[in-house]
Amino acid sequence: MLISLVVPCYNEEEALPLFYAEAARVADGMRTSHGAAFEFIFVDDGSADGTLPAIRALRARDKRVRYLSFSRNFGKEAAIYAGLQAARGDFVATMDADLQDPPALLPQMLDAVRDGGYDCAATRRTTREGEPPLRSWFAKRFYRLINRLSDTEIVDGARDFRLMRRRMVDAVLSLAEYNRFSKGIFSWVGFRTKWFSYENVGRAAGKTKWSLLRLFRYSIEGIVGFSTAPLIIAAWVGVLFCALAFAGIVFVIVRKLLFGDPTAGWPSMVCIILLCSGVQLFCTGIVGQYLARTYLEVKHRPLYITRETEQDL
Ligand code: UDP
Ligand code: MG
């Protein structure tokens, strides 16, 4: 039984040795307790610091370590995809390099998947302790919104820390879309998932790579990728405005015929034009989001480009 650990790494030179030490400790424990062999797949997502040399050094020490290094930063989603493609294990786990996903949970997760009749063990954090309050607030709003808009359930606080059976990994890989939103993809493929909860732990070392702006863009990715509801909303706003305009026309005509009022002034006109053109641009923008993603998909660009793997050593 082989277990692959897929670890996306972007500028993680500080956290990497800590991660490796902990993961290797858990792996050794599981070799005796579960008879499991391990491979560690580090995906260097175009790091600018000493991450790649650090990974090479680990490989030189430990042949269980395999790696892929991208030609530039392609993002965490691409890194996870690349790692899943490279993984050969019967079970594959994805986890962050900063020890926010505790490897110590792996034995329990394996038990659930191997013996409990599940295909996947997923994790969620119950608290957002140690996170800026503004970020938590936006995150909460985002999960409420996307679950209203989308048929695919997106679990609040779900982490990308998962252990999957081979059949689920193959299903995830079959979704080769360019605009990836893992939380949605894992949920979309279905399968039986057991959830584990734990309290949020801070980063072991290094800094987070996710600014508020980056998270915002990622949230748009999620909404556009897993719901077409905004398009329908745009259409309904159009219908609503037509109805309002029609009521307005009737009102103006009736007032003119019954009371002979002159139709007054341009200020109201300016407001109406501004409002209507604003709504139109907004709706066009929504359509544009979908169009842009369609464009990116039909180009069929690769999700990532590899510069080096352990075979090049
Ligand atoms: N990561 C990556 N590519 C990126 C950004 C992040 O591979 O462009 C990796 C990063 O090295 C880490 C994981 O994704 O292993 C999660 O990133 P981070 O800890 O910065 O996010 P947070 O936990 O703060 O949400
Ligand atoms: Mg982290």
Short description:
This protein has 313 residues and is α/β, with parallel strands linked by helices.
Description:
- The protein has helices at residues 15-34, 51-61, 76-86, 106-115, 133-149, 166-174, 182-188, 212-226, 229-259, 266-298, and strands at residues 2-9, 37-44, 65-70, 91-94, 120-125, 158-165, 193-198, 306-309.
- The two termini are 27 Å apart.
- The mean pLDDT is 87.
- It has two domains: 2-209 and 302-312, Spore Coat Polysaccharide Biosynthesis Protein SpsA, Chain A, CATH 3.90.550; 229-299.
- By secondary structure, the chain is of the alpha/beta class.
- The protein has an eight-stranded mixed sheet, with helices on both faces.
- α1 (15-34) links the parallel β1 and β2.
- The chain binds uridine-5'-diphosphate and magnesium ion.
- Residues 96, 98, 100, 203, 208 line the site of magnesium ion.
